[in-house]
Amino acid sequence: MPADPTVPKDSPLDAPPPIPRRAWFALALAASSYVVVLDSIGVSVAFAEIEAAFPATARTTLAWVSTGFSIALAAMLLLGGRLADRYGRRRIFLTGTGVYLVGAFISTAAPTPAVLIGSRVIQGSGGALMTATAIALALPEFPERHRGLAMGWLGAGGAMASVLGPILGSTMVDLVGWRGAFAMTIPFCALTMVFGHRLLRESEISAHPGRLDLPSVGVGIASVALFTLAIIQGRTWGWGSAPTLGSFAISIGLFPVFVHRSATTDTPLLSLSVFANRRFTVATIAQLGTQTGIFAWFFATPLFLQNIWGWSPVEAGWALALAMMLGFISIPAGRWADRRGYRSVLALGALIPALGMGWWIIALDGQSDLGVGLVPGLVLFGAGAGIVGVPGTGAALVGVSNTDLGMANAAHQTTRRTVQALGVAAAVAILGSRDNDSVASFKWVWALTLLGYLFSALVIAVAYPADREPHDATARPRGL
Asked: What is the CATH number of the domain that holds 335?
């Protein structure tokens, strides 16, 4: 429709609509899904105490405290997203929060390793329902031209969880022992349950009638679970071992079965039509590079600071915290996406951590060099990772209908979780021995991280659609 000549150029009618208060409430509650970040960090901090509490249990068995959680989280995401679109996101989100809360109570009081591992699987399942629905629950509450800002604030929430995780986790372990690492998430979930029932609105129900296709549910969960299992346990079992290769083979064999069921049934676990959305497909592919890169970096950098430079775990933790604090740049990045579109934000943003890794490859060696060597790369990496992290998910969901947001977000998050595990596995394979003191090996990990971000920048720059749709050309929000 042509512009109305009677409306002045700077008329309020041309400005973006205001953000309703309920949108901020929904966003704050959605951010509670980052308890899975607090949880993972807390378990890492508490693992030595858990080993001491169960001295008769092998480390490989106790590792399932983390492994069981991670596999359940990855495997249940697709089901959580589909259930949310069919039966209501508020209902599934709060159900997931309740399941997670029950698991947290059991983990805190677990008398044996078997009970602890079982409760962690429960927590992972609940965390999957929360993660699959959180963004889809909050995003529709925001006007379309403010959704980049919403994703930016969610990114800031993730950065805050990453910064607070080591601090809260270590404090709770010091105060009450390893059980404190599991107890620290209980208040967050309890508050989410209370305020979620009062403040969240139920979503539209997706127009997908009929009973959910159970074969596609079973095949989809099994395929993701086995693939994640093989990646996580590969370094323990051996990459060429029968269990690892068998898990990979079965998972890969199940995948075409899953695709066939998804294409031929009316009510699949994942509707393949979501991939017809070019923005979703391109942004999801681009995240393959960034998620591989950042998790390889997360695994290798503390080891470099401790094994090569001789830093303490606390000093290494604070270095990572500095990088994560810069994740708050996701807020202005989200505003930029609202004004100019996601393509420029993500393409340029992915070059920043790549530059940081290039600097480390050139500047760092076996001698501690905080000012000239470490900090510039740390700052560049943290800032760039914040720009393309959660806003990258926003780029994937920008063209998805509100009724299918849960399913699309779950598919995107499943991809991210799987690739994150691949990033850690790649770093482990490059570094080899746990006592690795070769600077060259760490530089190869940083090169992998650099290539991951360059891949993402290239995919977005070449394949992501034009930053502004034609009907948005005269509707840019003013000011920051």
From this structure: 1.20.1250.20
**Residue 122 CB contacts under 8 Å (≥ 6 apart), including other chains:** 72, 99, 100, 102, 103, 106
| Residues 449 and 377 occupy one common structural domain | yes
The two tokens of residue 16 are: 């973006």
Give DSSP secondary structure letters for 169-216: HHHHHHHH-THHHHHTTHHHHHHHHHHHHHHPPPPPPPS--S---HHH
Contact indicator for 383, 359 with CB cutoff of 8 Å: no
Same domain membership, residue 317 and residue 169: no
Instruction: Determine contact, residues 117/65, Cβ cutoff 8 Å.
Output: yes
Print the domain residue range for 40.
19-202
Domain count, the chain: 3
**Tokens 């989200």 label which residue?**
334
In this structure, the answer to whether residues 302 and 417 fall within a common structural domain is yes
Give the count of alpha carbons within 13 A of 158, CB side only: 23
Same domain flag for 94 and 243: no
Q: How far apart are CA 383 and CA 379, in angstroms?
A: 6
Rg of the chain on CA atoms, in Å: 22
What is the DSSP code (8-state) at residue 389?
S
Same domain for 174 and 321?
no
Which residues in the chain land under pLDDT 70?
A: 1-16, 204-210, 368-369, 433-437, 467-480
- With H, G, I as helix, E, B as strand and everything else as coil, classify residue 252: helix
Q: Alpha-carbon torsion 4, 338, 31, 221, what sign?
A: positive
Residue range 318-359, pLDDT digits in tens: 888 888 888 889 999 999 988 888 999 999 999 999 999 999
Q: Could you tell me if 188 and 235 lie in one domain?
A: no
